[in-house]
User: What shape does this take?
Amino acid sequence: MRVIAVAALSACLYAGVLGQGRAAKAPTIARGEQVVLLNTAERVASRNGDRTPYDIEAVLTTVRRVIRLDPGETRPACEKTPSCANASLYVVAMRGRFRCSYCSVPPGAKAPRGTVITLQIPAATAPSSVPSGFAIGGRYPDLRALGVPIRLRPAHRPVG
Assistant: This one.
């Protein structure tokens, strides 16, 4: 009886190991890059009126996936060029109370406001962390549709 139980357990473990080997691994974000992305998010939030953003997440994905997620996002030249469409990109999203300081508005108009900022940062330039895309609005993006998000800051606004 023991032999059968051990054999069955070994078969299950072996199948589990094989199954893990076949599963596609999600790209991960190195700890150092997480720190840079968090610092970038905090800097952008501060420049846009909120020094305590929260629910900050990042995901490593590709330009192609970002285009598919946001139908308004168009990059015709990039979509047809594999080296561009497959380029790695960080998408960082955060919540807060923001007033766009980057936006140009007509005289007398108010700057756009929102509760969510989304950044796009090319992975190749992550050490300099200069966003290539910026959006302000009220809808938090579904980062799981792009990959496996990493939480950089808790989901609740800090008290204080």
